[in-house]
Amino acid sequence: MRNDLNTVLRRVADYAAQYRAASPQRPHRPALSYTEMRERFAAPLPQKGAELSSLVDDLVQLAEPGLGAMTGPRFYGWVIGGTHEAGMAADWLTSTWGQNAGNQVASPAAAAAEEIAGRWLLELLDLPREASVGFVTGATVANFTGLAAARGEVLRRAGWDCNADGLFGAPKVTVLIGEEAHSTIFPALRFLGLGERRIVSIEADAEGRMRAAAFADAMRKVEGPAIAILQAGHINSGAFDPFEEIIPLAREHGAWTHVDGAFGLWARAGKTTRHLAKGIELADSWGTDGHKWLQTPHDSGFVIVRDQNAHRQAMSMTASYLPPSEMERNPADYVPELSRRARGFATWAMIRALGEEGIAQMVDRHCALARRLADNLAEEPGIAILNEVVLNQVAVQFGEDLDAEAADRINRAVIARIQEDAECFVGGALWRGRQIMRVSVINAATGEADIDRSAEAMRHAYRAIRQAGTARAI
Ligand SMILES: *Cc1c(COP(=O)(O)O)cnc(C)c1O
Fold first, then answer.
1. Which amino acid residue places its CA nearest to atom 2 of ligand 1?
2. Rounded distance between C-alpha atoms, residue 359 and residue 87, angstroms
3. pLDDT the model gives residue 329
4. Which helix (H) or strand (E) holds 54?
């Protein structure tokens, strides 16, 4: 039995190393569609168990054609980190050890690694050192958790205990949020009983940044408890809300300020980007991802709350009225779940692998690469860059010389062509009412040669589509 396990795990390790080594050469798109993959996986419920070695082989054989090239250095879809080898290795160990990270008595190692990694995060992101950190699945849940702390605290200040009385009959909480906030914030608010009519949407400028004057006007009109949600890193433009202006305004009115910084919070860790997130440290809570810029494997996000007590009152399973104690930090007191993966190991490993300097260099490099790509594409007649490339995101429009409808059609066709050619992977988005191609440079493996090769593939796809279009028109 042991020998068998040894053989299988070695095979998995060999396969993993080969898969990783081949990632740069692999076509940067899944070979089969979801429908095809469903047929591939379709099978009756297994009646008898299978041998470990054969099921591992089966899984590889079945899954491989339907894998997205997310570990590839020319993958720019959505905003997705590359799952760095160091994080991957730590993740294997995490599964090997089978730790339930919910409490520190059961797994002192998991709790300690998490606590230390949490402190490192506060230093890297230069946030208040007294803040508490919860290890969650991603920014969606990080934002949810930060906003739960916010809701409890603003109601407490208004004389309402929502842990005891819930929201029925509670003072109405107003949520101020930029009109270009990320879509995942809205379900987070819904889970918290803060429905659409509680939300005041604040006008944004062309880059998607909240207008401070519009915020000030809206804030003035608010009566009662309020939460302001700001954004670091707009999904299309990479832009940052004006924290230095907005946070003090919110504070004056006693509002809690939460920042969604899923990837943008990492601008704090770069040397060339730090200024973009100035004033962000004034907020009350922050949500960010490990699996985007920090390159951990997936299911990794962090919620950071300045007031530990507010954090624990929102999330603690047992004694919500206990004062926080440094020595007694129970991982479950800062997140919605009890039993969970020991996420601290992969985070610890990534920070240990890259170091503060390596992380700064990676963030700076990705931003320089995004500008390099934008400059390259802008040289091609008919291609426009729609955003100020301040971070790692590039919003591209093909066919800028055409009317809106034709340009939108061309953009969809070019994206489909780029995906089909599979030299690199990009996705589309609707922004300012127009179809765009969105590029996110956020994989640690991406280098200059990848960027130049991708720009060439994008320009090639664009020319091919324009020529085909012209031929059809004639
Ligand atoms: C990705 C993202 C989220 C959601 O993060 P998940 O890790 O997918 O849960 C929220 N806000 C912004 C700005 C994002 O880019």
1. 262
2. 14
3. 86
4. helix 52-63
d(CA 42, CA 38): 6
Query: Tens digit of pLDDT for each residue in 196-223?
Result: 999 999 999 999 999 999 999 999 999 9
Whether the Cβ atoms of residue 425 and residue 78 lie closer than 8 Å to each other:
no
Q: What is the DSSP letter of 305?
A: E
Give me the mean pLDDT over the 32-36 stretch.
98
Q: Exposed, middle or buried by CB within 10 Å (0-12, 13-18, 19+), for 384?
A: middle
Ligand 1: does its nearest atom lie under 6 Å from the Cβ of 258? Answer: no
Residue 305 near residue 284, CB atoms below 8 Å: yes
- Tell me: the pLDDT tens digits for 138-157? 999 999 999 999 999 999 99
Q: Is the pLDDT of residue 256 over 90?
A: yes
- Cα–Cα distance, 363 to 393 (Å, whole number): 12
Instruction: State whether the beta carbon of 349 lies less than 6 angstroms from ligand 1.
Output: no
Kindly report the number of other CB atoms within 10 A of residue 196's CB atom.
10
What are the CA-CA distances from residue 31 to residues 62, 74, 89, 335 (Å)? 12, 16, 27, 38
Instruction: Report the candidate in 24, 13, 114 with the shortest Cα–Cα distance to residue 454.
Output: 24
Any ligand 1 atom below 6 A from CB of 441: no
Contacts 24+ apart (CB under 8 A), 17-20: 19/71, 20/71, 20/85
What is the rounded CA–CA span in Å between residue 252 and residue 245? Answer: 11
- Nearest residue by C-alpha to atom 7 in ligand 1: 138
pLDDT greater than 50 at residue 412: yes
Task: Examine the pLDDT at 296 and tell me if it is beyond 90.
Answer: yes
**List of residues 6+ apart from 167 with CB closer than 8 A:** 193
> pTM score, two decimals?
0.96
